Amino acid sequence: MNKLAFSLVLGKIGIALVTLMIVSFAVFFATAFLPGDVTEILLGQSATPEAVAGLRHAMNLDQPAIFRFFLWIGGLIQGDLGVSYANNMPVADLIGSRFANSMKLAAATTLFAVPIALTTGILAAMFEGSLFDRMVTVTSITLISVPEFLVATIAVLVFAVYLKWLPAIVTVSEVRSFGEVLRVYAMPVIVLTFVISAQMIRMTRAAVIGTLKTSYVEMALLKGASRCRMVLRHALPNALGPIVNAVALSLSYLVGGVIIVETIFNYPGIAKLMVDAVATRDLPLVQSCAMIFCVAYLLLITLADIISIIANPRLR
Length: 316
Known about the structure:
Blueprint: H1 3-32, H2 38-43, H3 49-58, H4 65-77, H5 91-126, H6 131-145, H7 148-162, H8 178-212, H9 215-222, H10 227-238, H11 240-264, H12 270-279, H13 283-311
Helix pairs in contact: 1-13, 5-6, 5-8, 5-11, 6-8, 7-8, 7-11, 8-11, 9-10, 11-12, 11-13, 12-13
């Protein structure tokens, strides 16, 4: 890696760190000013003013918001996510198992969606203008236009209500065999695949088509290289940066899509935990879950930028 590429990589990392600080500020104050008083929710409507005041003091809610923000940031830096208001348990303990479930769902979706999307996008680029290419384009545009909750709702109606093939509610604790794993994870994975594959297909197709129209690829075609060799040997290595960006950007949609999917299918993941925490005004839990989603999104985007810099032959 030369000095230019190294400086670009350091710049991307610096931008990510600055963005993370801005996001942490926004997350804290967006949740701190949610309507409703968490102490009244925990103690009930019949709580006395003295009890409410005492609980607010114990939770540091009587302190200025900026003071609580710096306390929270200091805890995050030290690995302390705080204590849940509603459960009176460390937030890290509550998130632990739920985070593992969300990672399983994301990993299963990635293993299923990425090969399908990349293969479809590359084939559509190889046969640009064909019936297959037009069908892929129309289908991907349609899927991009449909929101996640509608795809999930239709999947539940078709596969769970009418066909009765798959369960409408995911129960991870009852999974004991590979067949049950496929049955339980099928609908969430299918829905998330629809969510992230469409954009990945279009971006991969555009990247490969752009590379196929360059002069060196046309020269390889004139020298007698087969279309398959031309794509795999000459076009794909030079389209690696845009394709990696397409994969990372599409996977970042999991951050938003997983919230909808986990809520609809009652999947015991971190997104469902966050939705429940919002209902009870459990601020430390909401803030920690939101920061995990933000960090995951920034990691994907920054990693894609770094790989595209390293893969760029002109920078090498």
